[in-house]
Specification:
By secondary structure, this protein is an alpha/beta fold. The chain has helices at 2-7, 24-33, 55-71, 82-95, 103-114, 126-131, 133-141, 155-160, 167-182, 199-206, 215-229, 251-261; strands at 14-18, 39-43, 76-79, 100-102, 119-124, 146-151, 187-191, 211-213, 242-246, 268-270.
Length: 273
Amino acid sequence: MVEYLKNVKMTDPIGVFDSGIGGLTVVRALMARLPFENIIYFGDTARVPYGVKSVETIALYARQITEFLVQKGVKLLIVACNTMAAVAHAAIEEISSVPVLDVIDAGARSAVALTRTKRVGIIGTPATVNSNAYDRAIRKLDPKIHIFSQTCPLFVPLVEEGWLDHQVTRLTAEEYLRPVMERTVDTLVLGCTHYPLLKTLLQEIVGDRIQLVDSAEAMAAQTAAMLEHHGLGNPEGSHPQYRYYVTDVPYRFQSIGEVFLGKNLDDLHVVKW
């Protein structure tokens, strides 16, 4: 950690990465919580979705993106992709010269704090659910919690298509959520950063008695605490710079992203591996 502190500056950006557009949920939370921080976002739009790919392939992609962001001089890496956090966290940490935070730990902590009946549902990609990463993280905090998981592989492509309030998306969500609701959970973890883009629709389906856990806000709080602890927060009054990198023609990414963030995505670049 001493060596790390020598090599970074307060003005260095925070690096955030995801398989596509979903990680912008974390970026939005960071912008609200840390309005003076510079941010670099990487969305692997050419290879999304990750959740149906093999562990080896996901780890390879994660290493490529980690190396790219570290070379950009970030002071902190945030893995905003639950799938990468679930199956490739060790691979990312192995090659990263800066600290790595991920959304699974943040989401698990929020779920444990919110549940009253100790019955927690988790929805995620097949890779995330099958890794049992959320189960381990939650039971490490409270072994008495009962966990019920459901894979939702179609949510990511529906979000990437921009079908956030489409009838097809609603019918798909009703089908996916029915088994979890039958388990009478009181807390539901949105175990993919794409899913908060469907938050309004999902809340309508599950009703008010089930609390939805969006780990983006918890992730922003954890980031703020870490930067404050090490004295690495960008000084107040700084004009933040936001840069976005994608791996495919970013027209849909830009249109959806601008609506979601409420900002123009002017500094947008396409990366070709």
